[in-house]
């Protein structure tokens, strides 16, 4: 009977149901306007670490009812930033469980009149409980994604207020990403240890900006639009599929008393299109002589953005109720079984996998670092990157829009395994929150639903079928991919994708040191993926760890020479594959060195970066730069050739005999 019961339990565990999940509302990026104010709560907060063996003590003792400094000694902690590397304490860097933040803020008396007050977090990793003046206002699970709450009824106007945040970094088998909590014996007792299989450090804390902002009582809550082109890309269309209004009376007659006026302005501030909606809050704008959004190096003016202004108006009085502005890139996407196109032109992706990672700040938003990264992306000639292995900051998405850098937008699912119902529902929630946040970005051209999932496991097929189909249900204007590391014979997920991406480390994890075992293996594997699924193929990761300044000749693993030669062998494979139209991109792993969990195979972290963690180039960066700009000239007919791309050697005009003797030495 016990055996039969176990079999029934195991069978039920393998059955996955495609249940509905709670969807996101609101979440427009905070922007000031005639009707809205925005205040930053970034700065130094007070910080307390819970006892690792008693993570729920703060909840039980209700630390949120008073200043944290009254219950424990606090230390200053910058926001936004990961807390792990700020201090010199092992206990904070390696902490597992809950930590607490608080700070004081004022709300002006003027905000109490006919307005709503909102509190918004760009990201807290992994789970957050937020209190205002001792009252819980929002709870959110999922790092790297924003959340907000209206706090109008919780704040004291014209007085000081307190915000308290409890953050929990624990990862288990039903979180996205997954992890495990274990107990290990130590010299003086037992340690609580967080383990995970993914190869980057589990930074935690309030990672992105915190804002207070206001809206009118009746306000623009959501905007969802698509774009299109016609007549040989000379006429553009922006279709407002949904402008959701919040705060209006919940009856049809009242909603009929509102309408929107929409206009598009070009970079010179000239109105190029405008229209007025009816009560359904939808609209279509037509742009004559449109300037399409093009990727970097595909056009002399890449990343062209219009500004869309949306005015919410009372139809009876014509009084302005709310104003919201956002950027719009007008472009089309299309794909088939052998190509991916923007504005009708085939794309060859050349770029990177990356990480939001830097010394001291960890995964905290750093605008200086972000600006440097985009300068390096353009310097090296890349046109794309993947947000490996989680959603990046909203500010970086805006930067990509403006610079014409294409984004493969990835959810936080990495090394996914042990598929179960709870995990499936959180995975779908992660995709829903990501798409809700990023659906209006021109730079986002593809959704990645996972990185290196264990797709050979028994029910991986049905699991990823549900996730992929749900992603298309949310947005059918972009293709779905996932970076797969399982070989094609064992994989059960790729059949449900639109574009196949695969990760492989020939010459590193496979046959390390063997440069003669790279080119053919890449060609054979890419061909196998395409022949099996008849879909476009991208190599989404390749590379080799490289210690900055280590030079060995002949080349040897970990040296800059070896990384350069390994890249060159991959380039040969890519150029052969490019002649087959279905191979559409190459992504280096990684853009820059990054921190990982401590390991004897990681000297200060993962060193596969083309750039160091301080964003300086290794030798291979110059080789890659020459390749990417050469591809830009060949594939995209780019005329931009940096003056410093090639170092002067000789003018080649010598009239001397080609014979050489000892005087040439």
From TrEMBL:
Inhibited by L-aspartic acid. InterPro entries: Beta-gal/glucu_dom_sf, Galactose-bd-like_sf, GH, Glyco_hydro_2, Glyco_hydro_2_AS, Glyco_hydro_2_cat, Glyco_hydro_2_CS, Glyco_hydro_2_N. Residues 1-24 form the signal peptide. The lineage of its organism: Eukaryota, Metazoa, Ecdysozoa, Arthropoda, Hexapoda. It is found in: Lysosome. Residues 337-629 form the Glycoside hydrolase family 2 catalytic domain. Homotetramer. This is Beta-glucuronidase. PROSITE patterns: GLYCOSYL_HYDROL_F2_1, GLYCOSYL_HYDROL_F2_2. Belongs to the glycosyl hydrolase 2 family. GO terms for cellular component: extracellular space; lysosome. Plays an important role in the degradation of dermatan and keratan sulfates. One of its GO terms (molecular function) is beta-glucuronidase activity. It comes from Glossina fuscipes. Its main location: other. Residues 218-331 form the Glycoside hydrolase family 2 immunoglobulin-like beta-sandwich domain. It catalyses: a beta-D-glucuronoside + H2O = D-glucuronate + an alcohol. Its EC number is 3.2.1.31. Residues 38-216 form the Glycosyl hydrolases family 2 sugar binding domain.
């Amino acid at each position: 009977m016990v055996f039969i019961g176990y079999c029934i339990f195991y069978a039920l565990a393998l059955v996955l149901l495609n249940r509905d999940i709670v969807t996101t509302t609101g979440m427009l990026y905070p922007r000031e306007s005639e009707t809205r104010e925005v205040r930053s709560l970034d700065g130094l907060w007070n910080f307390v670490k819970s006892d690792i063996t008693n993570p729920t003590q703060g909840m039980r003792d209700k630390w949120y009812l008073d200043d944290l400094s009254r219950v424990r000694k606090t230390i200053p902690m910058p926001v936004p930033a990961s807390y792990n590397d700020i201090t010199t304490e092992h206990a904070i860097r390696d902490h597992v469980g809950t930590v607490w933040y608080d700070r004081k803020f004022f709300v002006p008396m003027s905000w109490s009149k006919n307005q709503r007050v909102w509190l918004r977090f760009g990201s807290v990793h992994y789970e957050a409980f937020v209190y205002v003046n001792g009252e819980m206002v929002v709870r959110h699970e999922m790092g790297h994604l924003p959340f907000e709450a209206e706090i109008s009824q919780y704040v004291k106007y014209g007085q000081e207020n307190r915000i308290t945040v409890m953050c929990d970094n624990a990862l288990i088998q039903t979180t996205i990403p997954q992890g495990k909590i274990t107990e290990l014996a130590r010299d003086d007792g037992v340690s609580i240890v967080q383990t995970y299989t993914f190869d980057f450090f589990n930074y935690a804390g309030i990672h992105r900006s915190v804002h207070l902002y206001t809206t009118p009582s009746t306000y623009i809550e959501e905007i969802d639009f698509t774009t299109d082109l016609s007549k040989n890309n000379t006429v553009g269309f922006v279709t407002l599929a949904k402008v959701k209004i919040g705060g209006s009376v919940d009856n049809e007659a009242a909603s009929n008393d509102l309408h929107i006026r929409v206009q598009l302005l070009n970079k010179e501030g000239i109105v190029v299109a405008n229209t007025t909606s009816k009560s359904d809050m939808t609209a279509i704008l037509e742009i004559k002589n449109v300037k399409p959004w093009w990727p970097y190096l595909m056009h002399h003016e890449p990343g062209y953005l219009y500004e869309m202004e949306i005015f919410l108006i009372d139809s009876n009085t014509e009084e302005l109720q709310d104003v919201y502005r956002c950027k719009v890139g007008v472009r089309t996407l299309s794909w088939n079984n052998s190509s991916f196109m923007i504005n009708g032109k085939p794309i060859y992706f050349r770029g990177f996998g990356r990480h939001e990672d830097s010394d001291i700040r960890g995964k905290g938003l750093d605008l200086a670092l972000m600006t440097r990264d985009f300068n390096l992306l353009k310097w090296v000639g890349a046109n794309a990157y993947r947000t490996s292995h989680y959603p990046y900051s909203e500010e970086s998405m805006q930067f990509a829009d403006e610079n014409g850098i294409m984004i493969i937008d990835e959810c936080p699912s990495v090394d996914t395994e042990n598929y179960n119902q709870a995990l499936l529902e959180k995975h779908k929630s992660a995709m829903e929150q990501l798409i809700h946040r990023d659906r209006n970005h021109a730079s986002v051209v593809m959704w990645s639903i996972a990185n290196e999932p264990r797709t050979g496991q028994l029910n991986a097929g049905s699991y990823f079928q549900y996730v992929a189909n749900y992603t298309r249900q949310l947005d059918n204007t972009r293709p779905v991919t996932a970076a797969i590391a399982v070989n094609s014979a064992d994989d059960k997920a790729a059949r449900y994708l639109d574009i196949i991406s695969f990760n492989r480390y020939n010459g590193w994890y496979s046959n390390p040191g063997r440069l003669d075992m790279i080119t053919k293996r890449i060609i054979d594997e890419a061909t196998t993926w395409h022949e099996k699924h008849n879909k476009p193929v991208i190599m989404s990761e390749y590379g080799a760890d490289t210690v900055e300044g280590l030079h060995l000749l002949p080349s040897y693993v970990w040296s800059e020479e070896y990384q350069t030669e390994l890249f060159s062998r991959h380039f040969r494979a890519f150029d052969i594959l490019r002649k087959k139209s279905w191979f559409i991109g190459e992504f280096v792993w990684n853009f820059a060195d990054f921190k990982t969990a401590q390991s004897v195979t990681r000297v200060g972290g993962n060193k596969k970066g083309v750039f160091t963690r301080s964003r300086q180039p290794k030798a291979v960066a110059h080789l890659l730069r020459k390749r990417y700009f050469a591809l830009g000239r060949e594939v995209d007919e780019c005329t931009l050739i940096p003056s410093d791309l090639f170092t002067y050697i000789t003018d080649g005009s010598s009239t001397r005999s080609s014979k050489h003797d000892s005087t040439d030495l």
